[in-house]
Amino acid sequence: MYALRLRPGEEIKESLDEFCGANRLKAAYVATCVGSVSSVTLRLANADLDRPNEIVTEERRFEIVSFVGTVSPDGAHLHGTFADAKGQCIGGHFLSATVFTTAEIVVGTVPDVSFRRVYDANTGFDELTVLRHKGRRRHRACAMVGTALVLLGTAVLVATRKPR
């Protein structure tokens, strides 16, 4: 898991893509995000091969109510919900937003896989492709066994330590 805080004026999607790239995250996801934005651009839920994307940009302050998605080296697929000062919400496919006060984002990674975004002629969009890496499970199992042995050794030392 990784955590980052974006500051006023920073663009969320651009910052998230840069963060994942700089940390070489191959299969990342947004676990949670809280904060506020001063503008947001979303693609609404009517897009398909036959209808163009309806894109809305709102230039006003919103609280981030929900923000989720996947991030690959090819780009991100993000959705968000944003509440205004009256509690009215707008949501959809997230394209961009500018931080108002803060955006606190927790990013997780999926072990042993890479995410790619590949064009799908049926949908007309770049869609998620999950590439599984063989052989890494064995390394992970060895690492977990090694960690368990270290913890066991520490517990034995603590249990057999003479009181002062």
Automatic annotation (TrEMBL):
What residue stretches are annotated with the PPC domain? 1-131
Gene3D superfamilies noted in UniProt: Hypothetical protein, similar to alpha- acetolactate decarboxylase, domain 2
Against Pfam families, the record matches this protein to: PCC
| InterPro entries in UniProt | PPC_dom (IPR005175)
Q: Which CDD domains match?
A: DUF296
Protein name, please? PPC domain-containing protein
Keywords linked to the UniProt accession: Membrane, Transmembrane, Transmembrane helix
